[in-house]
Design a protein that fits this description.
Elements (H helix, E strand, L loop, with lengths): L8 H13 L8 H8 L3 H13 L3 E4 L3 E4 L1 H23 L8 H8 L5 H10 L25 E2 L8 E7 L4 H10 L6 E7 L6 E5 L3 E5 L1 H4 L2 E5 L2
Antiparallel strand pairs: 1-2, 3-8, 4-5, 4-8, 5-6, 6-7
């Protein structure tokens, strides 16, 4: 997956997660990596020191880290293979979308370029993972998106659910049970004040009231 002799698979994994988190943070706090990768503070600190020495990240004290151009180049092939593997696990092997993130972490270690190409062919060359995240091209380019957090959208807007930006299995199972997956069109009917819940109408007359823990991971495209 990583074509540089000084870049390990572990570095690629961290680089891909930093890339994802940089959409939220200008500099990614190490604590966010501890949470998202489920590793200790000591493990994160060791890896970030190695990545800095390899020229993959820059670190600003009291702020966090961000990828260098070399770090981005290392992250994109890893992101492609991981997200493509998630699609394969859902569409071909029948796993649930709440199961595949952790499974893909293990499965992808045995995937080479030949298997990656075959998985892409078998899944009709997808451009999004099951959670709606874009899949980089084989040439290492990330497709652009035109979406935004649901939390910042005005009441009354017609929307399409674009991405569910969490690995939390309970949230994914909950949204799956509600029928709220990427591609679903909906209308933001109401939002309670003081960071209260929101009410969505979708799939005809279905409604869902979602708290901020769920709203915060939903990204949408405006339809009007």
């Amino acid at each position: 997956m990583c074509n540089h002799p000084d870049i390990t698979e572990g570095m690629c994994l961290y680089a891909s997660e930093i890339f994802r988190l940089q959409e939220t943070f200008a500099f990614v706090p190490p604590s966010e990596l501890e949470y998202s990768l489920n590793v200790s503070a000591q493990a994160v600190a060791r890896m970030l020191r190695r990545m800095k020495a390899a020229g993959l990240v820059e670190h600003v004290r009291y702020k966090g880290v961000r990828l260098t151009p070399k770090g981005v180049a290392a992250a994109l092939p890893c992101i492609r293979r991981h997200r493509l593997t998630e699609v394969f696990l859902v569409d071909v092997m029948g796993f649930g979308w709440d199961e595949v993130h952790d499974l893909a972490d293990r499965f992808v270690q045995g995937v080479d370029d030949v298997l990656e190409a075959r998985m892409a062919e078998m899944t009709n060359h997808p451009t999004r993972c099951p959670h709606g995240e874009p899949i980089p091209t084989p040439e290492g380019e990330m497709p652009p998106l035109n979406d935004e957090p649901l939390a910042g959208v005005d009441v009354g807007r017609r929307l399409r659910l674009s991405r569910v930006r969490t690995h939390d299995r309970e949230i994914l199972r909950y949204l799956g049970a509600l029928g709220l997956r990427p591609g679903v069109e909906m209308r933001l009917e109401a939002r309670a004040p003081f960071d209260g819940p929101v009410r969505l109408r979708y799939a005809g007359n279905r409604e869902a009231v979602l708290g901020q823990a769920v709203v915060s991971v939903l990204w949408v495209e405006r339809l009007d």
